[in-house]
Amino acid sequence: MSTKLPTSVRYVKNGRRGQWWPVARANGQVHLGWKPVPKELLVKPDFPEIERILRRVNGPRQGVTQDFNALRDLLDTPSQHVWVTFEERFMWWCTVLDGATVNPDGESTKMGNFWLVCNLPWSNHSLDGRLLAEADLPGTVTTVAGFKATVCRPKAWREILRIIQDEKNPDVTLAAEARGNYKQALEKIIKQLPWQDFEQLIDLILDRTGWVRISSLGKTLEGIDLEAENRTADEIAFVQVKSIATQTVLNDYVERFSNQRERYARMIFAVHSPSRELRAPSNLPVQLWTCDRVAEFVVHVGLGEWVESRLA
Q1: Residue 155's Cα: distance from chain center in Å?
Q2: β-strand 266-274 against 9-12: which pairing, if any?
Q3: Which of 26, 119, 145, 282 is the 20 to 30 Å CA partner of 233?
Q4: Dist CA 187 CA 150 (whole Å)
Q5: By CB neighbour count within 10 A (0-12 exposed, 13-18 middle, 19+ buried), where does 312 fall?
Q6: How far apart are the first and last CA of the chain?
């Protein structure tokens, strides 16, 4: 059965600079402060009285209304929200039960003045198990991590819900489908390229992915043997480009490569029209670039217009 989540989101900070986060995560709780509010009002909220207390304690300073609204979100049916926070370079989320628990020992550096108990415990994974690393999330989502106060409704709350529930952005889905269709169209074009153009295409892909041709070893009607160097990886690759190839041809070049391992870190065998499915050895660093892989590279490095121009 799928997990049904609330349709509202609140960001919460477990103490100043997340000081209560370790206990909150370990115990499945959300830890808060608000020491000026009497304990009985935290357990049984009287919101007009709470607001009067906050205004009396804090005076005319800015932010009192924001402070009161934050506390109201925490005490007035907090189960209606998904609660999120950013700690340890991840986005964490939980749901909570209604009703506050007051700390009998009072606020400390390790625990808050009161807490909410989680219904669904803190998690840094989506419902389908995707790790919610901060670096992998949209900037519109992670911006809320810089919020200075305790509670707010993130501007990107819909996006947060979508990510937690593994729902695809419809515009992104449409773009991905278009990219897939474009890749398939490019495959058809690449298979029609004469060997000279296919050879140049592979050279361009190598160049745009960090490889630089350092020597040509000899041309044939089908393609060219060449050496390419990646200086950042400190590697030299043996590259063979073919329009057509059989498994026997591939095996022949694999044998040549295996006999020259002192010089070559890897072998790249590019072919757009193999006679049948080719298999690269699993025990050697041999990369097989068939037409679908080459088309992926073309889309990734922006060579689509160049490919189109070859047969325009």
Answers
A1: 20
A2: unpaired
A3: 282
A4: 53
A5: exposed
A6: 53
pLDDT for position 214? 86
Whole-number pLDDT of residue 58: 81
Distance CA 243, CA 49 (A): 81
Give residue 104's identity as a one-letter amino acid code.
P
- Of the candidates 309, 278, 308, the one whose C-alpha atom is nearest the C-alpha of residue 188 is 308
| Burial grade of 80 (CB within 10 A; 0-12, 13-18, 19 or more) | middle
Q: 30-84 pLDDT, tens per residue?
A: 999 999 999 999 999 999 999 999 999 887 666 788 999 999 999 999 999 999 9
CA atoms within 13 A on the CB side of 10: 25
Task: Classify residue 15 by its DSSP letter.
Answer: S
Torsion 175-176-181-186 (CA) sign: positive
pLDDT in tens, 196-211: 899 999 999 999 999 9
Domains of the chain plus CATH, in order, are 9-167 (no CATH), 173-310 (3.40.1350.10)
Strand partners, 109: none
DSSP alpha helices (H): ranges in 9-164?
21-27, 39-43, 47-58, 64-75, 139-142, 157-164
**What is the average pLDDT across 114-123?**
97
| Residue 285 CB coordination number (10 Å) | 15
For 236, list phi and psi in degrees, rounded to 5: -120, 130
Rounded to whole angstroms, the Cα distance separating 227 from 238 reads 5
At 148-196, the pLDDT tens digits run 889 999 999 999 999 999 998 788 888 989 999 999 999 999 999 998 8
CA–CA distance, 228 with 204 (Å, rounded to integer)? 12
Asked if 93 contacts 82 with a C-beta cutoff of 8 angstroms, the reply is yes
